[in-house]
Amino acid sequence: MNETNYSDLFDNLLPAFGETLEMCGIALLLAVLLGVPLGVLSYITAQRSICQNKLVNLVVGFFINVVMSTPFVILLVLLLPFTRFVVGTSIGPEAASVPLGIVAIAFYARLVEGNLHAVDNGVIEASLAMGATWLRIVTNVLLPGAFSGMIRGLTVLAVTLVGYSAMAGIVGGGGVGDLAIRFGYYRYQTDVMLITVLLLIALVQVIQTIGEKASRKVQK
Amino acid sequence: MIKFDNVSVSFSNKKGQLVNAVKNVSFDIEDGEILGIVGTSGAGKSTLLRTVNQLQLPTGGKTVVNGVDVGGLSGGDLARFRHSIGMIFQQFNLVSTKTVAQNVAFAMEIAGRSREEISRRVPELLDLVGLADRADVYPNTLSGGQKQRVGIARAVANNPKILLCDEATSALDPETTNDVLRLLKEINAKFGITIVLITHEFDVVKKICQRVAVMDKGELVEIGDVFDVFTKPQHDFTKTLLSHTFDLDVPERLTLDDAKPLVKIIYNGEKAEDAIVANVVRNYGVDVNILHGKIEYINDKPFGILIVQLIGTKDNLDNSLDYLSKNTYRTEVLNERN
Ligand SMILES: Nc1ncnc2c1ncn2[C@@H]1O[C@H](COP(=O)(O)OP(=O)(O)OP(=O)(O)O)[C@@H](O)[C@H]1O
Ligand SMILES: [Mg+2]
Asked: Which of B193, B246, B276, B326 has its CA 20 to 30 A from that of B132?
């Protein structure tokens, strides 16, 4: 077993933590910006929904399913050319954000769709009876109705992404998870592994608490 | 005017079988009237009602509102058409994330009303339904009756010509039901809105409807003036539906005694004040045993049912029965006479 150089470790830990936050933050942002519209699209184009469209529904559903059912490590590798095309490199936290973001988008789209389904159908029917367009129903009834659930979903997503970001470390993404694997796993420094894992647990805990609070606050 | 012209609606259920929810229904609803639709669960009442604002497209025939075939509308035309039809529901269907005032305003926003108009009219509407002091609370803090009042305010916000009510009082207790019915009646009288009201309770019909349509297994089996349908139900199904009103039980031994006719007398508003029974006794020398009786109110008009036993000579009995038939709404001998 190797001696642990703690000052060396802490020099590494802080930037790694920053990298993790960066990766997950970008992915979360993408999930909100693109996952929400995608989830809404999937919901409203479904059969008997308010903007029925078989083709769009099929395409959206297919994208989500493919991304969600492909093991993340494989997706990481498959997306390498795309990543290089988008950020110009395939290593570093920015590069890792691409596959992470794509998973986040698909994952969150499904969560959002589920939350939309939980909105009372009767209210949608009442809105239709009043002559509301699908867009008005989405903005006035569906999204507000699903909001607290969507925040809870975002918490789940964030926690999941922290886990996934560790895998992104494998292909040179950096981050705390990468640190855990490099020091703890490859060099058998159990104490380092422990510290990093504790750090990840703390991060997840913080995310969870904030998420719960926020979701409860917006509930009507 | 709403015209159901041979309307049929069929669904294919999960097993792929065809369910005929509405079968060749034809009738008209006049402007300004309150019409009730009654029938047991699954009779197709909601499905028929939903063809009026195209929440449901007929699979056969057509629903015509003021000369417009509703099924032919789409896009902006359909939206504008829907602004002129209000609808209230059993489960109220308020937007839980909007306040009471915002729920009412929502209907007006949808109809493209200006902000000034909305902020002027919403308080008026809440005043109309007696909820001015609850404008800024969320629906989950309201009682069922209050929720339905918000539903009504929302439904009439755009001055609709028609108000559709699908079991609007079915989730409410009797007292609250009466309050809501009174409000509907007031709205009908004040604004001349045509009201179509689905219910499975005949009591609701008696209180506010002028006419009633009876549906059974997708078909219209009877339609007419509430008083007529109520006192002279034609169809077996209607009779069953009304049986609790007419089943005034008398001991069987009385019906077996065929020398003494057992007579059911139904008398309506105008004749209720005449001393008909007293006249029979006085003029025909017939004894009258009153066995059972009650008074119902239809549209606030009294309507009485009396079961009596007549005792006297054959001639006197014949004469008194003749008199009763002529002077009451309906007289019916319950036991066979020789
Ligand atoms: N969207 C649908 N898909 C399949 N079947 C339907 C659909 N809507 C209604 N039905 C069927 O049509 C029939 C009539 O339903 P409807 O809701 O009109 O009855 P109802 O008279 O309003 O009953 P209730 O008093 O229970 O509300 C029922 O057998 C019902 O199962
Ligand atoms: Mg119904």
From this structure: B193
Q: Is B196 helix (H, G, I), strand (E, B) or coil?
A: strand
Q: How far is the centre of ligand 2, averaged over its atoms, from the C-alpha of B56 (Å)?
A: 13
A32 in Cβ contact with A154 (< 8 Å): yes
Between CA B232 and CA B237 the distance in angstroms is 12
Return d(Cα B126, Cα B141) in angstroms, integer: 16
Residue among A130, A139, A219 with most chain B CBs within 10 A, to mutate: A130
What interhelical angle do B144-156 and B100-110 show, nearest 10? Answer: 20
What CATH topology corresponds to B2-243? Rossmann fold (3.40.50)
Record: contact A130-B107, CB cut-off 8 A: yes
CB contact under 8 A, A129 and B95: no
Domain spans in chain B, listed from the N-terminal domain onward: 2-243, 252-333
Q: Whose CA is nearest to atom 16 of ligand 1?
A: B44
Task: For residue B14, report the distance from its CA to the centre of ligand 1, in Å.
Answer: 13
> pTM above 0.95?
no
pLDDT tens, position by position, A84-119: 999 888 888 888 899 999 999 999 999 999 999 999
Instruction: Indicate the domain borders of chain A.
Output: 6-218
Q: Which CATH number fits domain B252-333: 2.130.10.10, 2.40.50.140, 1.20.1260.10, 3.30.70.260?
A: 3.30.70.260
CATH number for region A6-218: 1.10.3720.10
